[in-house]
Amino acid sequence: MNDSDLLLKNGSIIAIIGGGPGGSFFAHFASRYAKDAGLNVSIKIFDRKSFCQRGPRGCNMCAGVISENLFNNLEKENIHITDLCVQRKIEGYCFQTQDESVALHHPVPGHSSKIVTVFRGNGPLQSVHEGNISFDDYLLNHVKEQGVEIISDMVKDFRLPSRKGEPVKIICGERHSKKEFAADLVVGAFGVNTGMMEKVSNMGFGYKPPKTVRTCQCEIMLSREHIEKTFGNNVFVFALGKRELKFASITPKADYVTVNLVGRKDLTRNNLIDFLDHPTVRNLMPAKWRIPNNFCMCISKIPVTYAKHPFADRIVVLGDASISRTYKSGIESAFNMAKMSAHTAFKNGVSAKSFMNGYFKPAKKLLARDNFYGILMLKINDYISSNRRLANRQVQLVKCDNDKKTASQINEILWNMLTGNVPYKEIFFKAMSLRLISKTLPLNPLCWKRKKRNV
Fold first, then answer.
1. I need a labelling partner for 52 at 20 to 30 A (CA). Which of 279, 316, 364, 366 fits?
2. Which of 372, 395, 419 is where one domain is finished?
């Protein structure tokens, strides 16, 4: 048997490991491509987690910001996020230093942003809302209506076929109710916060997981009145001179705000407490506010590199456990990779060669190469945000009415960095304008010496 024989056909079974957005998006596109090809296939999503539960049991550990690009793509696919899921419609971002703050707006004048915030699970543990507000559960129900079977079982293991062309063996269920069945395609949409990555890396077909870093986030309950008055429809992003942090934000929702911290190295609860105790952050909280003894928080992993060889005959890995945009737009990356890999499976086949040429090589071109420029931009941002004087200077330039060209340029760069609206490469070359550099960075030795004293 050769690669051309590894095709999906009538009666083929697709097993998707993971019920998060990556798994649901793949199921959505697989259902569509199967229908277009006139194929009757069975699509099964396996995930033991119930996203309709509140607190950690239902949470998928994410800030829950749906980017404008993703929102528009979902609309094109007739996936309309219900009003019940939407916690807040985001109109802008606020860039906050220790001394200054500035509102960032969409670079296109008059453009209405389509960014929304959601909960991945059914809200924090202390939530008192009615109904199911989980974005992930909404996606599962969407594909369920397309005929996809949702199985509340954990996949314990899967085994490569002993001979080329044979199906993959899936083992799921608990010890006394173990089930085994054959799948013509196994889709790994399990993310980086499970033990499945290590199992797959030990299967011998060359998969190596991405490197990860532990982030920290929490949900803080505040009154709707305070959130509306203080945060409004703006995500707050902070440059507080904390060298251990690469990114810090507070995202408003209905009666909660989500605090999201990403560090150069693994973060802990102490980093979160230290951030919440910062005077700039405390000024955004109600008078006499105290850090709660108990609140919904998680320490979760995010990828900082991409996986090696996330495919084999009848196996493809996507989402965070494969390749995604560095520090940004994880759900959007899952959407794009799910579409690309599903298209490959139905148009080109499910061989390793098909996935390499139709999925992984284009994915690397789309994301991995662009991530190189993203890393450069993040290093520039690290330098500026860790320097109190430079961070304040950046804010002052955006607010300056006497130099609207520079203000517009910096606003555009910051907006696109925060929203992920355009590729990092495009942002990088706009940021490398000599005119802009001369305005924003110190160009004499005395200023560079001051950096250490001001951090």
1. 316
2. 372
Tens digit of each residue's pLDDT (9 = 90 or more) over 33-57: 999 999 999 999 999 888 988 988 8
Q: Do 295 and 220 share a structural domain? A: yes
Q: HEC profile for 337-384?
A: HHHHHHHHHHHCCCCHHHHHHHHHHHHHHHHHHHHHHHHHHHHHHHHH
Which residues on adjacent β-strands are paired with residue 208?
308
C-alpha distance from residue 411 to each of 93, 156, 246, 379 (Å): 10, 48, 19, 18
Distances (CA, A) of 306 to 51, 60, 124: 27, 20, 30
The single residue listed with the structure tokens 């995202």 is 251
Residues with Cβ < 8 Å from 217, sequence gap 6 or more? 61, 62, 63, 258, 259, 260, 261, 297, 298, 300
Locus of tokens 């490569």: 160
- CA dihedral sign, ordered 365, 366, 371, 377: positive
Pair (177, 220) in one structural domain: no
Is 188's pLDDT higher than 90?
yes
Mapped onto helix, strand or coil, the DSSP state of residue 418 is helix
Contacts of residues 374-383 at CB distance under 8 Å and 24 or more positions apart, as own/partner, are: 374/325, 374/326, 374/327, 374/328, 374/424, 375/326, 376/424, 376/428, 377/417, 377/424, 377/427, 377/428, 377/431, 378/246, 378/326, 378/327, 380/431, 381/246, 381/417, 382/246, 382/264
Please report whether residue 62 resides in a domain. no
CATH of the domain at 162: 3.50.50.60
CA distances from 281 to 90, 119, 243, 260, 375 (A): 20, 22, 16, 13, 27
Tens digits of per-residue pLDDT, 260-278? Answer: 999 989 999 999 999 999 9
Note down the domain range covering 388. Answer: 373-454
In a domain, 70, yes or no: no
Closest C-alpha to 27, from 3, 45, 5, 46: 45
Q: How many C-alpha atoms does 176 have within 13 Å on its Cβ side?
A: 0
Separation of CA 87 from chain center: 17
Q: Which residues are within 8 A (CB) of 208 and not within 5 positions of it... i.e. 6 or more apart?
A: 201, 307, 308, 309
368 and 379 assigned to the same domain: no
Q: What is the DSSP string of 27-44?
A: HHHHHHHHHHHT---EEE
399 or 177, which is more confident: 399
Query: Is the Cβ–Cβ distance between 253 and 87 less than 8 Å?
Result: yes
Tokens at 104, concatenated: 């960032």
Q: Supply the pLDDT for residue 2.
A: 55
